[in-house]
Design a protein that fits this description.
Helix content: 25-40%
CATH architecture of the largest domain: 3-Layer(aba) Sandwich
Number of domains: 2
Number of helices: 15
Largest sheet: 7 strands, mixed
Shape: globular
CATH topology of the largest domain: Aldehyde Dehydrogenase, Chain A, domain 1
Distance between the termini: 62 Å
CATH superfamily of the largest domain: Aldehyde Dehydrogenase, Chain A, domain 1
Strand order of the largest sheet: 14-15-16-13-12-17-18
């Protein structure tokens, strides 16, 4: 069984202790993750700090070229990364699974490499010239989750290093192996110390986020953990980008075609078995087409093959871990106890793996956990409404505000409803379709700051105004 290492200062660093990483489809051990100590963490931050001056001093074009080479390196090793990702995360190789994720990582890396933040001239006249310069911040601590571990790692790393920062990344203990391998590949291209990786047993987060030599934190994960990250950063006023949990609402207007939207609704809710922050997690359907939408969704779901992600014909895999399996099971049971009607799924089979069936629950409303809280799994509540004002009010009646969607045959009408939703991103007749040139981030308790595009690049800089 392969024992993975830390990567600190461009070198493989063996750990004294390791943790088994298991396949959520079978429970089999797929590799041994290193467990860093506080001394390892300090060494990684020190390596990043030492590498920062030279990396920040390099020209923007040099850094762009190296980031583009990182994209080429990921692409050249795509199949290895995809298979390792499937083994530890569970998502299938095909469909919107591991090969899709590695392709997304390449696309985001390549696009971000092409971006730049040139000097902006605010004023140039008889009263003088004023220039706005963007400068790198320093050492960035990146903390990533287990749902999209490679792609989200690239979302954190590439804009940070593109703008001249150095990075220490700490992946989730559930899925550390693909991230460690990603960093090993990056170190074939980047100067030593620019990109470092540590792994832990969920015991080093606070030491990393409070470290005095870390200047910025970028974190993707739950709102509860995001609050703790923010608190630990307060003493040194670290810069923060927090992409936190969501409970995205979709509203189906009465003029929508149930059969035409069924596929989009399904994948908006069930991509990665529902383990995505910006999944469709609450669906509000007008009474006049409620039964038709329920029938169309159930019919589409019945054809979806769930199984071991290494099987080439599987398109949905298991939940990644037992804790999440327990949450989804509890939420569905609570919904049924409160009058919910299970259209499909809802009864997981015994046996190895954290397989929970695609589940649609009709006739639920606010007050059920499946509606009020983020399920982060393959269970979708379908809520009946009679008046659009009621639907908008209910959609906004949640502390989260990551994404939302409106489904209609009239785009103008849909955009009018979309404008009233309290969320950072909103889609018309689709859900969760993010892209590398469009800013993405949450409002309310779904986060601080944005990712992607030029606006996301700016998150990794400070402004210096030069008066000439």
């Amino acid at each position: 069984m392969q024992e993975f290492t830390l990567v600190i200062g461009g070198k493989a660093v063996a750990a004294a202790r390791h943790r088994e990483v298991t396949n959520p489809s079978s429970g089999e051990v797929v590799g041994m993750s290193p467990l860093a100590t506080v001394d390892d963490l300090n060494a990684a931050v020190s390596a990043a700090k030492a590498a920062f001056p030279a990396w920040a001093a390099r020209s923007s074009s040099d850094r762009a070229a190296l980031c583009a080479r990182v994209a080429e390196t990921i692409e050249a090793n795509a199949e290895e990364l995809a298979r390792l990702l499937t083994l530890e995360q569970g998502k299938p190789l095909n469909g919107l699974g591991s090969r899709f994720e590695i392709g997304g990582a390449v696309a985001w890396t390549r696009h971000t490499a092409s971006l730049d933040l040139p000097v902006e001239v605010v004023q140039d006249g008889p009263e003088g010239r004023v220039e706005l310069h963007r400068k790198p911040i320093g050492v960035v601590a990146a903390i990533t989750p287990w749902n999209w571990p490679v792609m989200i790692a690239c979302w954190h790393i590439i804009p940070a290093i593109r703008t001249g920062n150095t990075v220490v990344i700490k992946p989730s203990p559930n899925t550390p192996l693909s991230t460690i391998r990603l960093v090993e590949l990056m170190n074939e291209v980047l100067p030593a110390g620019v990109m470092n990786v540590i792994a832990d047993d969920n015991d080093l987060g606070a030491a990393l986020t409070s470290h005095p030599d870390v200047a910025k934190i970028t974190f993707t994960g739950s709102t509860a953990t995001g609050r703790r990250v923010m608190a630990s950063a307060a003493d040194t006023l670290k810069r923060l980008t927090l992409e936190l949990g969501g409970n995205d609402a979709g509203i189906v207007l009465p003029d929508a075609d149930p059969k035409a939207i069924a596929e989009g609704l399904f994948w908006g809710a069930f991509i990665n078995s529902g383990q995505t922050c910006a999944c469709l997690k609450r669906l509000y359907v007008h009474d006049s087409i409620y039964d038709a939408v329920c029938d169309a969704l159930a019919a589409y779901a019945s054809a979806i093959k769930v199984g071991d992600g290494l099987a080439e014909d599987v398109v949905l895999g298991p939940l990644q871990n037992s804790a999440q399996f327990g949450i989804v099971s509890d939420f569905v049971q609570d919904a049924v106890a409160k009058g919910g009607r299970v259209l499909t799924g809802g009864a997981p089979q015994g046996g190895p793996g954290y397989f929970y069936p695609v589940t649609l629950v009709a006739d639920v409303d606010h007050g059920a956990k499946l509606v009020d809280l983020e399920q982060f799994g393959p269970a979708l509540p379908i809520i009946r409404y009679h008046d659009i004002e009621e639907a908008i009010a209910k959609a906004n009646d949640n502390p989260s505000g990551l994404g939302g969607s409106v489904w209609s045959g009239d785009v103008t009408k849909a955009k009018q409803v979309a404008a009233r939703l309290e969320c950072g991103s909103v889609w018309i007749n689709k859900h969760g379709a993010i892209q590398p040139n469009a800013p993405f981030g949450g409002v309310k308790q779904s986060g601080i700051g944005v990712e992607f595009g030029v606006d996301g690049l700016k998150e990794f800089t400070t402004i210096q105004t030069v008066f000439c």
